[in-house]
Specification:
This protein starts with 8 loop residues before the first strand and ends with a helix. With 314 residues, the chain is α/β, with parallel strands linked by helices. Helix 3 crosses helix 10 and helix 4 crosses helix 5. The protein folds into 2 domains: 162 residues, Rossmann fold (3-Layer(aba) Sandwich); 134 residues, Rossmann fold (3-Layer(aba) Sandwich), CATH 3.40.50.1400. Strand 3, helix 5 and strand 4 form a beta-alpha-beta unit. It has 10 helices and 10 strands.
C-alpha cells in the first residue's frame, strides 16, 4: 500500500475518561451524569474504588501513555504525517477539545480510533454522538472517519495470549489442572430494538480461541459495569465465579478481552471484586495483565491507522 500520498492526518484516540485525583471525582461524575450532580453515595463509591486501585490519592493515565506510544510509533515510521491526540467522552481533554486542537494545527482529515477492539452498538452510538457534537464546536469542518473497531488485529490477540500465558505460569504446574478461563468485558444495555448479538458473538469467539490456544479446561464469558435501567448483558463476573466453583474447578484465569489500558473500573473488578470472591470460594485466582502500550499492539495499531488513512483519502 502506498502511503506517500497521505496528507497531514489527525488521529483522535477515543477513551471514556476517568478522574486523575480524588479532587476530580465530583466534576468527573457530574460530567458522567451529563451535568447532574452526583449523590453522596456515588461519590463515596467512586472514592473507595479509586483509593483501592491507586493505593493513594492519584492515578496515572494509561490511556495517555498508550496514545503517546502510538504517536511515537507513527512518527518513527511516517515522520510528521500523523498527529495523535487523546479525547475523552467524560473527562479532559474532551473529544471536542482534542478535535479543536487538531483543527488549530491546520489538519483537515481526522481518523477517530476507539480503544476497544470489539465494538458494541451502544459504544458506537456514543462515539458517533460525541464526534458529531465535537464537529459542531470546531472553527471549521474537517473530514472525519470513525474506525469502528479492530477485533482481528494480530498484535491485540498475540498480546492477550502472552499475558494470559504469563498469568497461568504463576500457578504451580501440579495445580494447573481443572483451570477455567473467565473472559470479561464491559456490559452494555440491549433491547429487541437495539440488540447486541454481534458484540456477544465476537467476545465469545475471542474467549473460545483463547481457551483453545492456552489449553484451559473450559471457558466462560462474563460482564462488568452494568448500570442504569433496562436489560444489560450478563452474567456478572461474580455470578460467573460462583458458577465456576459449582462446576468443580480449582482455579480460574481471568482475562479482560476488550479492555486495552488500565483504568479504575476494570482494575477494581479484577483486583478487588473478583479476587475477593474467588478467595471466598476457595478458588485459585490469577489474572492476565491488560495490554496497555505493548509493542506488538502499538505496532499493529500504527499499521491500521496508516492503512485506514490511505483508504480514507481515496
Amino acid at each position: 500500500m502506498n502511503y506517500e500520498d497521505i496528507p497531514q492526518t489527525g488521529v483522535l484516540v477515543l477513551e471514556y475518561g476517568e478522574p486523575a485525583t480524588l479532587d476530580d471525582i465530583v466534576p468527573y461524575l457530574t460530567a458522567h451524569y451529563h451535568g447532574h450532580p452526583p449523590s453522596p453515595r456515588d461519590i463515596a463509591y467512586m472514592r473507595e474504588r479509586c483509593q483501592r486501585v491507586w493505593s493513594g490519592t492519584s492515578g496515572d493515565s494509561a490511556a495517555r501513555r498508550l496514545a503517546a506510544a502510538l504517536d511515537d510509533e507513527l512518527r518513527q515510521r511516517f515522520g510528521s504525517r500523523f498527529q495523535v491526540v487523546l479525547g475523552a467522552r467524560h473527562w479532559h481533554p474532551t473529544v471536542a477539545d482534542a478535535l479543536a486542537h487538531l483543527v488549530r494545527t491546520g489538519i483537515q482529515c481526522v481518523l477517530a480510533l476507539p480503544l476497544s477492539p470489539i465494538a458494541s452498538q451502544m459504544s458506537l452510538r456514543s462515539h458517533q454522538e460525541a464526534l458529531e457534537r465535537a464537529q459542531t464546536e470546531v472553527a471549521r469542518p474537517v473530514r472525519l472517519h470513525l474506525i469502528p473497531d479492530w477485533p482481528d488485529l494480530p498484535g491485540y490477540y498475540s498480546t492477550l495470549t502472552i499475558n494470559a500465558t504469563l498469568a497461568l505460569e504463576r500457578l504451580p504446574d501440579r495445580d494447573r489442572s481443572r483451570t477455567a478461563l473467565l473472559a470479561i468485558a464491559h456490559s452494555v444495555a440491549e433491547s429487541a430494538r437495539k440488540p447486541e448479538a454481534e458484540y456477544q458473538w465476537r467476545l465469545r469467539q475471542t474467549m473460545q480461541r483463547l481457551v483453545s490456544t492456552l489449553g484451559c479446561d473450559a471457558g466462560y464469558l462474563a460482564y462488568y459495569g452494568a448500570e442504569g435501567p433496562g436489560q444489560w448483558l450478563g452474567p456478572d463476573v461474580l455470578s460467573a465465579l460462583d458458577e465456576i466453583a459449582r462446576a468443580g474447578f480449582r482455579h480460574v484465569l481471568a482475562v479482560p478481552i476488550n479492555t486495552v489500558y488500565d483504568n479504575v473500573e476494570v482494575c477494581y473488578e479484577l483486583d478487588v471484586r473478583m479476587a475477593e470472591r474467588a478467595a471466598a470460594l476457595g478458588l485459585g485466582y490469577v489474572r492476565a495483565d491488560i495490554p496497555n502500550a505493548a509493542p506488538a499492539l502499538i505496532a499493529d495499531l500504527a499499521t491500521l491507522v496508516a492503512q485506514m488513512a490511505a483508504v480514507f483519502q481515496n
